[in-house]
């Protein structure tokens, strides 16, 4: 299971007269295996919130707990290990190593976790799960955008994480490719039981989630199931 509890989370970038309050006291409880969309206008604090939950950045105050463990109190090494093993990340711009093959990219989190034995077989299976087994040996920078995002999804899931974070996963793709990537993300979310936390501008993608949290000016504006939102 993977359930987050965020308490009074704040994030201030910069200091003094240039200080900017990107999160202004966000409290949120997620449920195990939930799919959650974080939506809102550009600059509202969506990525900042995802980065706090994913241990990519530290909050200024407040706490982030996962299954009852306060992650904000972990030492740096423990936080790195937890992020690598329990979290998977997919970003708008893929973030693959362009010179490495697809399968080499997917083995990276396993090697970081010290699980080199069997890494290639596990990476190949993960590529198979995203429909790219036949491109395992292809250099990442020669793949299409949609294929690169599939490699990124395979890399995010190869460690069998408890949580899959996706920040604008379809933002760099045309709508047809974006829809195919969305299908893959949700199929794997259902198949693996990993929680899915998505930052998106896409209303179609948000509508697929169990729950939609809208952020405005660093605070939660609304928190609804998509059906309820459609009826409102
Ligand atoms: N490292 C940083 N230093 C200073 N300000 C930052 C930093 N990162 C983000 N910000 C600011 O914090 C605010 C929230 O940024 P964030 O990226 O979380 O917004 P967002 O809702 O994800 O926006 P978008 O939809 O455009 O990606 C923005 O005004 C942004 O300029």
TrEMBL record:
The keyword Repeat does not apply. One of its GO terms (molecular function) is ATP hydrolysis activity. InterPro entries: AAA+_ATPase (IPR003593), ABC_transporter-like_ATP-bd (IPR003439), ABC_transporter-like_CS (IPR017871), ABC_transpr_LolD-like (IPR015854), MacB-like_ATP-bd (IPR017911), P-loop_NTPase (IPR027417). Keywords: ATP-binding, Nucleotide-binding, Transport. The keyword Nucleotidyltransferase does not apply. It comes from the Bacteria. CDD domains: ABC_MJ0796_LolCDE_FtsE (cd03255). GO terms for cellular component: membrane protein complex; plasma membrane. Residues 4-232 form the ABC transporter domain. This is Putative ABC transport system ATP-binding protein.
């Amino acid at each position: 299971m993977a359930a987050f509890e965020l308490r009074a989370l704040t994030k201030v970038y910069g200091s003094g007269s240039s200080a900017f309050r990107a999160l202004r006291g966000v409290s949120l409880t997620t449920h195990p295996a939930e799919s959650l969309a974080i939506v809102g206008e550009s600059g509202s604090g969506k990525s900042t919130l995802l980065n706090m939950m994913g241990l990519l950045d530290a909050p200024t105050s407040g706490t982030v707990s996962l299954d009852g463990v306060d992650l904000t109190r972990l030492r740096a090494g423990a936080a790195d290990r937890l992020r690598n093993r329990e979290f998977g990340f997919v970003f708008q711009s893929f973030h693959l190593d362009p010179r490495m093959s697809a399968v080499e990219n997917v083995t990276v989190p396993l090697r970081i976790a010290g699980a080199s034995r069997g890494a290639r077989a596990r990476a190949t299976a993960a590529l198979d799960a995203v429909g790219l087994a036949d491109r395992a040996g292809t250099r990442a920078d020669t793949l299409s955008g949609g294929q690169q995002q599939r490699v990124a999804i395979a890399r995010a899931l190869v460690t069998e994480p408890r949580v899959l974070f996706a920040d604008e996963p379809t933002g760099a793709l045309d709508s047809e490719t974006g829809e195919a990537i969305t299908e893959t993300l949700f199929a794997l979310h259902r198949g693996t039981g990993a929680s899915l936390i998505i930052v998106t501008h896409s209303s179609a993608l948000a509508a697929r989630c169990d729950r939609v949290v809208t952020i405005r000016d660093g605070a939660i504006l609304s928190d609804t199931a998509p059906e309820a939102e459609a009826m409102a």
